[in-house]
Batch of 2 targets.
Target 1
Amino acid sequence: MSQNILVLPGDGIGPEIVAEAVKVLNALQADYGLDIELTEGAIGGAGYDAAGHPYPDTTKELARKADAILLGAVGGYEYDKLPRELRPERGLLAIRSDLDLFSNLRPAILTEELADASSLKPEIVAGLDIMIVRELTGGIYFGKPRGIRTLDNGEREGYNTLVYRESEVERIARSAFEIAMKRDKRVCSVDKANVLEVSELWREVVESVADDYPQVELSHMYVDNAAMQLVKEPKQFDVIVTKNMFGDILSDAAAMLTGSIGMLPSASLNAKGVGMYEPIHGSAPDIAGQGIANPLATIMSVSMMLRYSLDQAELAAKVDAAVKSVLQQGLRTADIFVEGFEQVGTATMGDAVVAALKG
Ligand code: IPM
Ligand code: MG
């Protein structure tokens, strides 16, 4: 039976980069018998334009039926003045929450071809292979109460709530340990237990989950130190597990270790293995429509989809190899360009990956 892929291009550069990833999916269908059916939906600003909501009901219905979702990015200046609940980002948070996609995997891998594109010295980053496991449906992103209120003296006050239940910590910790078992068997849990009660409980729960994984070495690190260690000695990490907001911040830092934020894919999974796949970068409205965005993070998100939702590890490896091959050929989008290489646009990069796949 063919599997149902929902494609959500979103805003800004989203449609451009997703178009390249769809080329890859089509090639896998045509040449390798991948049995999938693609449906398209609107999310973010595009959802608001089409149906007055960043996560329209029609998209929700499609998402709930999908075996996997490919998402571009959301957000744009033109939506910044909308009421908060109608802004594009809310659509992204809503779909993550609606499908219970609590486990967000953000691998930061530096392919040797890009060692020169990183702003760090090659010897610091060469061979880098980190997996950040970010909790995605809880914490301060979703905690209540939240809002902006006016105090008695007329001053306004903004407030959010950082809250984690034991069960939420337990399932994300388990996710991290399971992944570590397939890697170098080291988990670093990043928290702020020296200040936050939430982190104190987080640490306790992570330690109790660790008892079920005696082969995995668990360490703890405060988030400020983790930010420093990531740029100082990033190769010390194998799997990092952390809260929603810390993961958001640390994964952007980790992305830059790999040369560009345009190179990092992600998978967001629920307990049933349904997943949403998206590049970790945003909609980059400043370069939207120019055909210069890097589609590789989205294409590598397809590879993660093949691996984690479609049970096609061999095809995933083919996509990874095709990406490696275009980098070896010397093709570079603007974000990873350095002198001596060939600068290409979004579509040329996508076509080159497809050509390498057909190889
Ligand atoms: C990410 C993004 C989102 C987040 C935004 C767009 C809501 O930064 O996926 O990292 O903060 O989770
Ligand atoms: Mg982010």
Note: The radius of gyration is 20 Å.
Target 2
Amino acid sequence: MIAWPAPALTQLPGRGEIPTVHDTATDSLRRLDVGPGENPKAGVYVCGITPYDATHMGHAATYVTVDVLNRALLDAGAQLAFVQNVTDVDDPLLERAKRDEIDWRELAEREIQLFRDDMTALSVLPPDHLVGVVESIDLIGRDVVKLLESGAAYRIGVAEADGQGADDVYLDLSQQPEFGRTSGFDEAQMDAVFADRGGDPAREGKRTRFDPLLWRAEREGEPSWDVAGLPAGRPGWHIECSAIATAYLGPRFTVQCGGTDLIFPHHEMSAVQADALYGEGAFAQVYLHQAMVGLEGEKMSKSKGNLVLVSRLRQQGEDPALIRLVLLAHHYRTPWDWTGDGVEEGRRRLARWRSADAQTREVVGGLDAPSAGLLADVRTRLADDLDTPGALAAIDAWIEAGADPAGLGEAPLGDIVDALLGVRL
Ligand code: 5CA
Ligand code: ZN
């Protein structure tokens, strides 16, 4: 499906470094393996929205974090292949459509467009491929068939579902020695979240309770598609990301991103399914997870309904640059809450930055080399595990010390924050 228009990308003098990020799978800081030589292209995948409600600040935090990563990679001279899915058919979407008496396709289309508008307003670089599940049924179905043919997957009959002997399909985790490697979760941790996050541990006929659903045979009133070798049905959730990521980025790619709520089961299963398809060590080489953003001490989630929406703030006339600054004031690994105080702090900061940029923009001569000064500082902070609070603090400190244009490093402040932070002054 079409993505959204790309914002103009300001080129900065010199180059940043390929960033390090915290990898969930190894619980360590890892420099992304891209650059001249074997891996010139960074393959970045982020789990996209399930379009049954509008984009909230938790989603925005995830997509802005990935955007900062992408901007750092481009600034370091890497080529980028960026892919994002859209879960445009799944239980929560179907349930919401039923509740609101609206066609599920119409609901999805409406929320996807709102998401595009939100991402455009927030100056998020669009993916090269924004890929819906509905348009990828064949691609996903083919992978399910492959898993059945290799014996990695098995069928469970759907009792009384349709009288045609249709089967759901599951992956057999007992054959996957890598299971658990991505999340690092032990069984107790897995049990604690599996059922809440779409899992069906008690389903009769499963070989092990965490086995993920690959294909769901048609149930009455649910949409379904025909794929050769499978009963009419639709893909399970995790296989969509295994299939889409590997189809567009290859069986091994640089980094898989999403919120920490996806560590288990979603990213664990996506990775293990790719192992089953392509062999051990397939899928992402690094897993980056955005901590949960809450509101007044609770996780912000569509199901709880405690949402601060990007679109609502935009309607109220808030500057998208302000929304970005509020998000960037928090490191991606630290959970935080959206608060009125945070917004006011962002507002003051944006005003300070705009005034400093206006005062120094015309003074181009006499700046230091790009390897020194504020530009170099901001680059160094971002290359160190996307330290956005550190980058903001470096800019604040430069302003507090008198906003000397000689300390900028061959680029106006407005260009530095536009290119690296996506904030328009
Ligand atoms: N469609 C699936 C991924 S394949 C999904 O999780 N959709 S979502 O709409 O629920 O979430 C979209 C993205 O926002 C995911 O990467 C998710 O991890 C992230 N996310 C959701 N809630 C929060 C939150 N409160 N804080 C931070 N990130 C969040
Ligand atoms: Zn996903």
Note: The pocket of 5CA (ligand 1) is lined by residues 47-50, 58-59, 61-62, 85, 87, 241, 258-259, 261-262, 290, 292-293, 299-301 (CB under 6 Å).
